[in-house]
Amino acid sequence: MSLEALKSAVLEANLSTVRSGLVTATFGNASGIDRATGTVAIKPSGVPYEEMTADQIVAVSLDGAIIDQRLRPSSDLATHLVLYRAFPEIGAVIHTHSTYATIFAQSMVPIPPLGTTHADYFRGAVPLTRHLTNTEIGERYVEATGDAIVEAVGDRDPMEIPAALVAGHGPFTWGRTPAEAALNALMLEEVARMAWCSMMLRPGIRPISTELLDRHFLRKHGAAATYGQLGDET
Ligand SMILES: O=C(CO)[C@@H](O)[C@@H](O)COP(=O)(O)O
C-alpha cells in the first residue's frame, strides 16, 4: 500500500468516528499500519476533525521514529504502537470516548455478552484493564496504557475480541483494516448501550450461554462462517 493510500484510509477512519457520533471535540484517534513496510499512519494531535486533511496524517515507524510529519502525532501514539507490536494480526487501531463504552470503563465494569448482537462482534466479555500504577502514570503513561490493554486481552485471540476498556479512560478497538476497526468501535458503543439498558431493566441479568455466544460469533467469523456471501457472488 502506498503511504498516500494508508493516510487516506486513516483519515477516513478518523472522520467516520465523527459521523458515527463516537467522538466529540478532538477526542479519540485512529491509526493504520502497512505491515509490508512497518509504517504507521496516525491522526495529528489536537486538530479539529472538520479541518483534518490526509496530508496532515503523521507517518512513523513501529518504534516511533518519525517518517513523515507536518504536525505532531496523536498524544496516544505510544499506545497504538504497543498494540501493533503485540498483535501482529491487526492493521488498525481506534480510540474513542464514546459515551456508553466510556461509562463501563469509568465504572470499572467489563461489557458482558448479554445477547447475540454482542456475540456477532465480540467472542465474550469486552475486557477491562487494570488501573495503572502511579509510577506508570508518572513515567510512561501512554505506553503503559497499551501494556495494560495487552494484559487485559491476555491469551485470547485479539481478532475474536477486538476491543478493550481502559480503566478510568475509555475504549480502544482494532481490526484488520481502518474500516473494520471503525466498525468495531461503532458496534462496541452499540453493545455497550444495549448492555447498560438491559442491566438497568433487569438487574442481575446473566450473560448468554457460551454455546449461543460461540454459535453466533462463528456464524460471522472464521473458516466456517455462513453469514453473507461467498467471494464475488453478489
Ligand atoms: O485520550 C485522550 C484524552 O483522554 C485523547 O483521545 C484525546 O485527547 C485526543 O488526543 P489527540 O488529539 O489524539 O492527541
From TrEMBL:
It catalyses: L-ribulose 5-phosphate = D-xylulose 5-phosphate. SMART domains: Aldolase_II. Pfam families: Aldolase_II. One of its GO terms (cellular component) is cytosol. Residues 8-196 form the Class II aldolase/adducin N-terminal domain. It is an enzyme of class 5 (isomerase). Its cofactor is Zn(2+). Keywords: Carbohydrate metabolism, Isomerase, Metal-binding, Zinc. This is L-ribulose-5-phosphate 4-epimerase.
